[in-house]
């Protein structure tokens, strides 16, 4: 299956298990692979027949702005469910990184795949 890609998307959200993390917003970085058949869009040169990466990126930013999860696991799982529901995505791979959360690591995070390819 073809993929629509979103790489290095930066969002801000309340995320973390510690008290000091509940009062600040922190940056998360996301990479997404979204399975879709791009041939109908390519054949008609028609945005309406594919996954609009701009609209999806906007939705992810709004999701992050209004969420307050403790774990990156929860953020990733809920975001994946929302995207699959809202945009009819059959399968996705989401990599979520929390930069600077661990000293001496560039980033920590999770990678999940949901749905059927
Ligand atoms: N598997 C996880 N481990 C940890 C998480 C998490 O979300 N998933 N979160 C924290 C803290 O919030 C940390 O990021 C603060 O620096 C610790 N471990």
TrEMBL record:
Top EC class, one word: lyase
Domain of life per record: Bacteria
BP-aspect Gene Ontology terms: folic acid biosynthetic process; tetrahydrofolate biosynthetic process
Gene3D superfamilies to which the protein is assigned, alphabetical: 3.30.1130.10
Claim: Phosphoprotein is one of the keywords in the record: no
InterPro entries linked to this entry: Dihydroneopterin_aldolase (IPR006156), FolB_dom (IPR006157), GTP-CH-I_C/QueF (IPR043133)
Pfam families hit by this protein: FolB
UniProt-listed Enzyme Commission number(s): 4.1.2.25
Catalysed reaction, written as an equation: 7,8-dihydroneopterin = 7,8-dihydromonapterin; 7,8-dihydroneopterin = 6-hydroxymethyl-7,8-dihydropterin + glycolaldehyde
GO CC terms of this entry: cytoplasm
Family matches, as SMART domains: FolB
Function: Catalyzes the conversion of 7,8-dihydroneopterin to 6-hydroxymethyl-7,8-dihydropterin.
Record-stated family: Belongs to the DHNA family.
The protein's name in its UniProt record: 7,8-dihydroneopterin aldolase
Source organism per UniProt: Modicisalibacter xianhensis
